[in-house]
């Protein structure tokens, strides 16, 4: 997959499955799909977990960068719980 290309699995997900709901992504890897679910499908709360601490560290690093870059654009783009729980 191209770095900027959307994950094809996202096309299979319906917004009403996630919107305003609490979600858990088990095996979130580096958090890319989890972040896209948070951004596109608008869950109320989403938590990503993975067994690999290096992948979680990468996910946290990318999330912090994304939050800084998007703070001026739209601070409500990610659920507030995403940064607390992830």
Count of alpha/pi helices: 4
Main β-sheet description: 2 strands, parallel
> Strand order, biggest sheet?
1-2
Query: How big a fraction of the residues is strand?
Result: 5-15%
Gap between N and C termini, in Å?
A: 24 Å
Weakly predicted, low-confidence segments? none
The chain-level structural class is alpha+beta
Portion of residues within helices: 40-55%
Work out the number of β strands: 2
Secondary structure: elements and pairs:
Elements: H1 15-18, E1 22-26, H2 32-41, E2 45-49, H3 53-70, H4 80-85
Parallel strand pairs: 1-2
Short description, anyone?
With 86 residues, the protein is an alpha+beta fold.
Describe the protein's architecture and organization:
This protein has 86 residues and is of the alpha+beta class. Helix content is 44%, strand content 12%. It contains 4 helices and 2 strands. Strands 1-2 form a two-stranded parallel sheet. Helix 2 links the parallel strand 1 (22-26) and strand 2. The longest helix has 18 residues, at 53-70.
